[in-house]
């Protein structure tokens, strides 16, 4: 960001003008970087990192106007005026990320300079867009959740009220018409009236996160229920097996229900992170462990997929089917703007990179929560967790596991007071046949939350055995794109076949394939269950040799009759849509 | 176009400046409109239309600079300089459409004013971009085919050479890098080195048309064979059942091989028209009747689909699956810019409308060709056709048919000289079981071209009986998007199911459906062949009632084993692409 000039944007020259670099929203990338650095400092002291963070903080502070406004793309000489392009200028979006960075820094020990900058920026937002100000709205939600977080941290009701106002304002088509429709920025339907997430996926998920924050802090159960129902429907109809969201490249958007093409999956990394944000807020709001399942699925199949082993390249979009061989990661900087590769070192729009950074740096905060009377474990990883219960007792436990490589999770009590308390564990939705062993007693546990309440002693052990083994999964028959397919999962992890040489699937080198193993001709035998092998999971397949037909559509082979049918009349394709509003399909799935 | 100011753009004020309206390429729409008017005048005299055409011609002539340059978006006061944005400015593209309009006008009887404007514009292009000029290239092909057509009309070799130069220049990445890659404007691979059409579909198809023109006129058989092979592969792997091309909205582009989603089909109307242009040129170049099949398929399933019955609204993109009910055609002009509807009255980018107009106005020119020794019929419609054979004999015939409603085509000789000559008829690729009756003699004919050579007398009749009846068609198994589906065709016409009330497919009103007939739950019984009924074609289907699952992926039901498989190893999805260039899929089709 230094090299690209994005951090330098905060430094104006003597005349107040700046040779600005990057897109309008590049400030937000700097703020997300600061947030990541703040979380990282919370994990371990690092004087060098702390100095860098302080320097960035001073640069931001220096760019802040006396009235609290701070944005490097608007309001300076030669730039458009403040808030002259709310629909696409990303000003409030950037401010939101500034607030989140300051909250992160305060939560990791420094509630000073950056928090002061953020409060003044937030005050300026409230002054400008409050009940007595302009009834404006940012084209990209983000400010809503940030204001609530700042309200939580500072106790300032004003920020919460402003967030609630932004949420209430959305959905009334007050933003200008967008070529992709008002749904693009969720301004088509009021938040509490919608029934599913739609439009630009990151926008929709950030807005929903802010709405849950507002609902929880204001006791607005109706709003909470509305957003929870929207997310339920989104999970049931608009989510990839990986937990990825967004099936349209054109507008980076959710598709219609069940439009989930594997090969054209957008599944933006940022949308995955935004869905984790939403699921986490719903988990905290409702206590339902199934939201932990969603977080786990996205962590293992979107976030973990997006980044390269060396952390130097990433996927912006996460396809579920790659038909042509990917290109190598480019190593020259001229290609920075173009992405490509299997993973790309940079994009001109590099929102995903600092988003990954801030998520990974704060990952520890997603493992567990404390309630009035116990601890709840939501994700499984080696961890030492200590906290104080509502009654003041200090409790602690250690988690040891190789999950998800295997399904054994060991929880050992490391600190406890007198009297009973609870340890609650999440049994994932896929874990049919899980077992819990407590005090030598073994019992089957069903997916959901399992509470172990007792008078603990230090050294007591809870042993959760999850049935991590390969399994086939089939899609809802309404997902046209993957009809007639199976996927393989193992615990929370989605598997794939890969061919690393042109036209050669990763088959057993001792076996004979007749056609080189083109992945687009692979046919899995679903009767042979997948099994663990040394480097992955093994299934049985054959490869259909394609013919060289000139036209890829042909008469069918004979098939058998099915019962219970009713007559359906068809019309010529070119006749469709002439008799009024209609749904339509050319391809008709068979019985 | 008058109301939007696109025609007015040609009129500058006293200072030479103009308050210009529309996109950079709006000149081309005016030229396509002129071309359509010219073809229409060729069909029938119309003084009012002729006057309008003359007025438009004068406006264009008035806007032409003394050196021949004409474009309303560049080169005037306050506008960017000429040819300062070849990649996206569409200047040569617009000039190409001017040339095509002038050629059409000359071919329909007026080789005067407009042709003069076009020749001077073409001369300016040759002066600027010729062997001694700038080695430039337009981001949107079109000038190539237009220059060859002008060369054919005028006999000026210079125009042909310039077209050949433009074709040879393309594919060397001389245009600036594009966010969608150089393939977006077919500048990634030299025309004669490519093996398939790719990138922006209209660009690719216009370029290929120009390349065929160049190849034919220069005797460049290698170039012709290369483009023919590219089109073959495009037809076999990148074309919808409708003949539509382009499966990506994002870049209006061809997808990878077999990426042909029905619900996200782009299948732009202009791409269909461009494919007709290419197929027609290949038909003329090779004589192969199968290109007539392609034209027929696109005419009946793309072009005929695109336009409304009243000719006042149209599809820009032609989806093959509409999941949510379409909206009514808006009748207020405020919605002009946004499209929508089942068909839209206007788009800001309205390239398709005048393209449809010029195609429909010239449709008669696609019916037949004359060779050295006979007539060939390529499309079947009522027609009177008269021409002169190479030896000077005048011949003529009349066609009477209700095709494609039924398959009977009657050809009657209306004029003939002494000695034998040929009438050659196209038997479409789908027409297994066609019959020909000549002189009372009946014989089976196979798909392809059937030549009837004899000494004709006026009144002789040729009777072609094509087996027009409903049939099922299945897709290549590599088209993931429609696996497990059938389509219904009848002759060259693709059918679809339609539900004109929410959730209610067009089922027999006397029959009982249990769930309202949601088209996304329709399951066709492929064992019951479709049959003709009064208003269309009838198939048998049932409707699966979906369950209310929270997550649309689940364990499979038991299935039976398949033989001949080899082991395939899978890796976790988040591991893919880490071992070098790879292909990949998550969903694995079953045996």
Summarize this, please?
Two copies of one chain form a homodimer. In chain A, a hairpin with a 5-residue loop joins strand 4 (383-388) and strand 5 (394-401).
Describe this structure in words.
The structure is a homodimer of 591-residue chains. Chain A has 591 residues and is an alpha+beta fold. Chain A has 3 domains: 358 residues, Glycosyltransferase (Alpha/alpha barrel); 99 residues, Sandwich (Immunoglobulin-like), CATH 2.60.40; 76 residues, no CATH class. The first copy, chain A, is 29% helix and 18% strand. Chain A has 11 helices and 21 strands. In chain A, the strands form 4 sheets. A 6-stranded antiparallel sheet of chain A has the order 4-5-6-11-8-9, with no helix packed on it. In chain A, a hairpin with a 2-residue loop joins strand 16 and strand 17. The longest helix of chain A is centred in the first third of the chain and has 18 residues. At the A-B interface, helix 8, helix 10, strand 1, strand 12 and strand 13 of A face helix 8, helix 10, strand 1, strand 12 and strand 13 of B. Chains A, B: Pfam families: Beta-AFase-like_GH127_cat, Glyco_hydro127C, Glyco_hydro127M. Chains A, B: One of its GO terms (biological process) is carbohydrate metabolic process. Chains A, B: This is Glycoside hydrolase family 127 protein.
């Amino acid at each position: 960001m230094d090299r690209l000039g994005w951090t330098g944007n905060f430094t104006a020259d003597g005349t107040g003008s700046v040779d600005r670099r990057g897109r309008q929203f590049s400030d937000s990338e700097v703020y997300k970087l600061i947030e990541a650095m703040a979380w990282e400092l919370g994990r371990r002291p690092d004087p060098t990192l702390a100095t860098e963070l302080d320097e960035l903080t001073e640069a931001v502070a220096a760019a802040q106007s006396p009235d609290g406004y701070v944005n490097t793309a608007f309001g300076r000489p030669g730039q458009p005026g403040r808030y002259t392009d709310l629909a696409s200028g990303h000003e409030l979006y950037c401010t939101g990320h500034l607030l989140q960075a300051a909250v992160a820094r305060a939560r990791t020990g420094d509630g000073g300079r950056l928090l002061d900058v953020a409060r003044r920026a937030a005050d300026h937002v409230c002054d400008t867009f409050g009940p007595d100000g302009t009834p404006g709205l940012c084209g990209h939600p983000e400010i809503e959740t940030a204001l609530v977080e700042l309200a939580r941290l500072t106790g300032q009701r004003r920020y919460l009220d402003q967030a609630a106002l932004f949420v209430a304002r959305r959905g009334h088509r007050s933003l200008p018409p967008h070529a992709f429709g008002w749904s693009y920025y969720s301004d088509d339907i009021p938040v509490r009236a919608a029934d599913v997430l739609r439009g630009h996926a990151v926008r929709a998920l950030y807005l929903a996160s802010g709405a849950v924050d507002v609902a929880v802090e204001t006791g607005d159960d109706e709003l909470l229920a509305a957003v929870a129902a929207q997310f339920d429907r989104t999970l049931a109809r608009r989510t990839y097996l990986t937990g990825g969201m967004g099936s349209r490249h054109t507008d980076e958007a959710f598709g219609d229900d069940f439009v989930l093409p594997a090969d054209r999956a957008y599944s933006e990394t940022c949308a995955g992170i935004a869905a984790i944000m939403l699921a986490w807020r719903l988990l905290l709001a409702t206590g339902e462990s199934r939201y932990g399942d969603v977080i786990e699925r996205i962590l293992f199949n979107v976030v973990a997929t997006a980044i390269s082993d060396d952390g130097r390249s990433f996927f912006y979009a996460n396809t579920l089917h790659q038909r042509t061989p990917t290109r190598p990661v480019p190593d020259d900087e001229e290609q920075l703007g173009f992405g490509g590769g299997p993973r790309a070192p940079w994009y001109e729009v590099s929102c995903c990179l600092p988003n990954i950074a801030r998520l990974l740096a704060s990952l520890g905060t997603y493992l567990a929560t404390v309630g009035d009377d116990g601890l709840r474990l939501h994700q499984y990883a080696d961890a030492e967790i200590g906290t104080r219960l509502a009654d003041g007792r200090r409790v602690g436990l250690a988690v040891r596991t190789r999950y998800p490589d295997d399904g054994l999770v060991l929880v050992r009590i490391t600190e406890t007071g007198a009297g009973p308390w609870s340890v609650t564990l999440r049994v994932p939705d896929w874990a049919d046949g899980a077992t819990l062993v407590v005090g030598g007693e073994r019992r089957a546990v069903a997916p959901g939350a399992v509470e172990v309440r007792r008078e603990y002693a230090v050294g007591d052990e809870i042993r959760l055995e999850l049935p991590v083994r390969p399994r086939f999964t089939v899609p809802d028959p309404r997902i046209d794109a993957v009809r007639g397919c199976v996927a393989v999962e193992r615990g929370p992890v989605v598997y794939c076949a890969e061919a690393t040489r042109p036209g050669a699937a990763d088959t057993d080198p001792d076996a004979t394939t007749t056609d080189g193993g083109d992945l687009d001709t692979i046919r899995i035998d679903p009767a042979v269950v997948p099994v663990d092998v040394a480097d992955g999971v093994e299934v049985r397949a054959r490869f259909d040799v394609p013919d060289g037909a000139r036209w890829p559509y042909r008469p069918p082979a004979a098939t058998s009759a099915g019962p219970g049918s009713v007559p359906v009349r068809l019309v010529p394709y070119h006749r469709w849509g002439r008799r009024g509003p209609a749904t339509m399909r050319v391809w008709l799935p068979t019985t």
